[in-house]
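As noted in the main text, all predictions were made from sequence alone. Below is one such record, for AMP-dependent synthetase.
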Amino acid sequence: MRDAIWPQPLLDTIVARGTEPLFELGDRIVSGDEMTAMIRRVAAGLRAGGVGPGDGVVLHLGVSPEAFAVIVAAFAVGARVTGVRADQLEHVLSTSGGRLIDESSLTGLLTSPDDGLPLTAAGRPAAVAWILYTSGSTGQPKGCCRTYAAISQGWNAYPDRWPPAIREIASGLGRFLVFGSLSSAVMLEYSVLALTAGGVLVAADPPIYPEALSRLQATAGVITVGRLHQLVRAQRERPEDLSRLRALMVSGSPLEPRRLAEALEVLGPVIFHEYGQTETGPIAMITPAELTARPDLLSSVGQPPPGVAVEVRGGELFVRTPAQAQFYWDDPAESAEVFVDGWVRTRDLAEIRLDGYLRLSGRARDVIIVQAELVYAGPIERALASHRAVAEAYVIGRPDEDSGEAVHAFVVPEPGQVPPVEELRALVRDRLGPKAVPQTVTFVDAVPLTPNGKPDKKALDPYRATPSSRTGHGTAR
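Prediction:
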């Protein structure tokens, strides 16, 4: 149906909110009526500037009501929308192209006269609506292209389509914490869900956990695994009042079962562990109720909701989701490799349990070739993280004269503890065999994070192991 084309349901939701609060930024509260007026002016300004269905816009904006209005207006006029971080800006402009809208452009758009045209979604179903760039953690960032038809098949703005887990989350989105970039996939999708559920977006940029959650009385937020570890540690050492927190959506990478159990113990039954990719959107989710009722599910990322299909082929997970991307922008070779006959090749190693729950075991491309044998980083990291004195563990490969490549581990110890290196090496040897044993174990205070909050393995190389850690004695910080 035409009236269901994205972002029409969101536009209707915003208009219907009227004088109700929609967005909070410090002491400023923006109502539905005020947001509607901003969207109308920005849409008029875009049209006056020649931006319409199929035209590209590149958004480099922070977190503000104005930024949100620009994003919604760009979709409303049917543009091809690309959100971008500062470190990706040059690459994106040179590949996807389009009109750049940054903070300096906002005043002109927001002061555009309302042209009186209906606030109606103008997107063409088959046209590219959204180019979402991957983090580039496994190579050059790739632009995942979703069409207006695909986004319109999603569920965030359509309450009648909400799966049970999403419905449970929606009930806790009264005050949803927003930060970073509102045009990022996860942040925009949960913002739309929050507004559709009647919630308010509350901004904190950058968010300092747990202080921001407490100060803004946030009931929900999105958090990466690395930042979740930091939050749990902070709550143990200097607890803040998080009694209003109802839903904390963890995404970005799998959680080691022991660490997930600890997060539930410290933060309460608020952890929703989501698994998805930029190419696919959400694939599976597990709820706090499932995790607390069934400890055997702590190693799972949940069940795919209705409408999501999964298959394991040769150990690798293939998926189909309603709102998935169709191809990579300007990259036909990689598109043919990943988008196969309507399926998306995730390049994640996985198994589907008999009860339908998914379990991930690593990245198909996150491998180290030791003596001509493939050694996957994920299982090594999980083995190391299972040690009682290890908070986090990450593994990389480096060239080695004897074995071709060798495994090198970076470990964040639990506060006040120093795990014996030989115990860690023995733990890996016993579970995975001698080729998986780290040649070096380097202790670090924290693992660097990418701009989107994921562990940055590329940045670990400056922490090169010392001779003492090669022999299994001592630490390097």
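The chain has 16 helices and 24 strands. The chain has three domains: 2-152, 175-363, 367-470. These features were considered when defining construct boundaries for the mutagenesis experiments described in Section 2.9.
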